[in-house]
Write a structure and sequence with these properties.
globular; single chain; Immunoglobulin-like; eight-stranded antiparallel β-barrel; four-stranded mixed beta sheet; alpha+beta; 19 strands
């Protein structure tokens, strides 16, 4: 059996607006590290992990207020800076970007044209900066400026690490031919295939559990693969992103096969699925989720998304794929 290692959710905002390992398998209390705000109170949290140098990437940032409300909707400005070491005692300016709000699947997206303070059930999501290129590994800081309705300009900073190379499978890599659990797997509980079966008694999205990654690669079929634990993720993001993939599967079943890989084989005894470990375990032993991977017909990873993702972005990439042969 594969015993648990700490699970760190990429969607770093809880409904209480705290940075925490909400899906964590350990008993540590939430720690507000990697986030900071100004006197006005707005706090920024870096929700992306496994950032690396050289390639354009998405950087997700959560914004919230001390009273547990969120900053949501509209667009914010982000400037990135590399923090020098003690000897340098300097900050080197880096790229700048506009970050657009990406709501949790099922929530409204056009409620406000500018950032506004919301309650968690009104505007849960992250701000996404796209095509950000980091030229140097090290500790970076994102300074966020938001013109919040009713509050005016607000600023906050969030720090995060950038490595020379990705630790997890990345665009351009060959996908692992994983034999993930499916509805055809024998001798495993249904909850190991989809955690929601633990309470529902059935797998709610059986169409996402028909294929293995290995079979898709062998048959030359593109695959959209979501790694998430819908039942046990306290951020409330894992269920919605899985629902999004299921919805896309109904509309784009001629472009790719769609796969959901559950994180937990046995949550009660803290046993992880082998497929989740093979794809998502970091060198330090942590496992991060949720993740979404688009694998091309040639078995190469085309794109990946962490934390949260825009349905429109994923839909655009699926539409760019040629129809599959039946």
């Amino acid at each position: 059996m594969v015993r648990v290692t700490p699970i760190r959710p990429l969607a770093a905002l809880l409904s209480l607006g705290l940075l925490a390992a909400a899906c964590s398998s350990d008993d540590e209390s939430p720690r507000p590290t990697g986030s900071s705000g100004n006197a006005s109170g707005m706090v920024a949290v870096a929700a992306s992990v496994d950032l690396y140098t050289g390639d354009p990437q998405r950087v997700d940032l959560g914004l919230f207020m001390p009273d547990n409300s969120f900053v949501s909707f509209g667009t914010v400005d982000v400037s990135f800076s590399l923090v020098g070491d003690a000897a340098q005692a300097s900050v080197q300016p880096g790229p700048r970007a506009a970050a657009v709000f990406v709501p949790t699947y099922g929530m409204p997206n056009e409620r406000s044209s500018r950032p506004v303070v919301t309650q968690p059930d009104e505007g849960r999501g992250v701000y996404e900066a796209t095509d950000v290129v980091f030229d140097t590994a090290g500790v970076w800081v994102a300074e966020v400026t938001a013109d919040v309705r009713g509050l005016g300009p607000q600023t906050a900073q969030a720090s995060f690490a950038v490595q020379e190379h990705p630790s997890l499978p990345a665009p351009g890599d060959r996908a692992q031919p994983t034999e993930n659990l499916t509805v055809h797997s024998k001798g495993v509980p249904l909850a190991a295939i989809d955690s929601r079966a633990a309470t529902k008694g059935t797998i709610p999205d059986p169409a996402l559990h028909e294929w293995t990654i290995a079979r898709a690669i062998a048959e030359g079929r593109p695959a959209l693969v979501v790694f998430a634990t819908p039942l046990f993720c306290e951020t409330r993001f894992c269920g919605p992103v899985t629902d999004m993939v299921e919805d896309l599967s109904h509309r784009y079943d001629d472009r790719a096969v769609f796969i959901h890989i559950e994180i937990w084989k046995d949550f009660e005894n803290q046993v992880l699925n082998r497929a989740a470990l093979d794809w998502l375990q970091m060198p330090n032993g942590d496992l991060t989720e949720p993740w979404l991977f688009l694998i091309g017909a040639d078995g190469t990873i085309v794109d990946r998304w962490s934390s949260m993702w825009s349905e429109r972005e994923v839909q655009t990439e699926l539409e760019a794929l040629p129809p599959m042969k039946r």
